[in-house]
Amino acid sequence: MKSLNLYLLTITAAFVLSCGTESGKEEAASEEVAAEEVLPSEPENPVDAISYQQELKAGGMQFDVSTTGLGSMRTLTVLVAREDQQPTRIDEPIEGTVMNTTVTDLNQNKKPELLVFVNSGGTGSYGTVYGYEFEREYWGQLKMPELSPELQKDYMGHDKYEVVNNRLIRTFPIYLDTDPNCCPTGGQHTIVYKLDDALNLQVEKVD
Known about the structure:
The chain is α+β, with helices and mostly antiparallel strands. Helix content is about 20%, strand content about 40%.
């Protein structure tokens, strides 16, 4: 009888230990699943991140302007939808941040021009204009001249652009020789550009 009781006690202990082991495994597995659920997802690729986006319409066309990338070098993408035409896509590398976009008709030829204003990073904030003219089947890129040597002497960026009365207006502060970047004291230059039929932005006036 004692042998039988000892045998039953041994079987019972083994069963209890087995249940405890299985329960421990289940709890550990549950903890592993929970741990997997709280792991953070992979960060979005900064190269593909949309950093600017705007939609404009003019002349029966729709313009979707966007940039991708978060650093100083980005990709400008322009998608143009025209009635009864395949969409047009333009991709162009740019340095800086798009500040604004506008649609106009500077040369009054009834073909809309899309202007994209970009400022570079850093303390200079140098301004650049990317311009495109569109018609039903074709498009062309606007060309802007370099600043004259005389204007370059006191130029350190901080450009501002706007369209007024079919003219592109560019203003920037005048830096004297001893001026720090933060504090120009020489006044301001204003350049007025007009657009010819060959898509050249020509200097019309300088103040």
